[in-house]
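Backbone shape codes:
===
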Amino acid sequence: GRIFRNEGVDSTHNPEFTMLESYEAFADYTNIMDLVEEVFEACALAVNGSTDVEVDGKPLSLAAPYKRVTMLDAVCKETGLTVDYDSDLETLRVAAADHGVTVEAHWGQGKIIEALFDTAVEHTIWEPTYITEHPIEVSPLSRVHRSKPHVTERFELFIAGAEYANAFSELNDPFDQRSRFEAQVAMRDAGDDEAHPIDEDYIRALEYGLPPTGGLGIGVDRL
């Protein structure tokens, strides 16, 4: 479907674009990783007859399997920092500023680590790589990781320095979803224009019931 988002425009973001979305009942984000690899391989074979392609004159393989790296591990490896989601907030702010990140006053540890990823890591990724375990703070619709309290069961696929897909195990607990929306409202009140408002219709739908679900979005224009 065609999508319009009332957001900024730059060399990597167009407010109007085409999105392919899917939702699979009784699947989680690991199942969706397998699905994405099948889709990207099939597209490459259909268009080029091979999973080996060129981007900006450089060779690139779209053959599965794709590398899987947690956001925290990627940030620590690329920056040399030793941080986690329990790090002292002020120490993390200083470390982020030292790496060129402009930190907003209302950001928590999760948002700062995501900003470090955006600034220091994203542009360095060439081969297809799943960046997994995004912080709860920046993933209001994603299910909490089954064994890690600070992160969600979410991934984004990066190729040649750009994001091509976003997916997660859907959050299907209406009580958790309401608290996430309320946290987003607090962030919006603190100055985050991209934070979600409370969507009462969506919460009501979850109260009727949603099975465990894996959701996916692929930017068709980029692909």
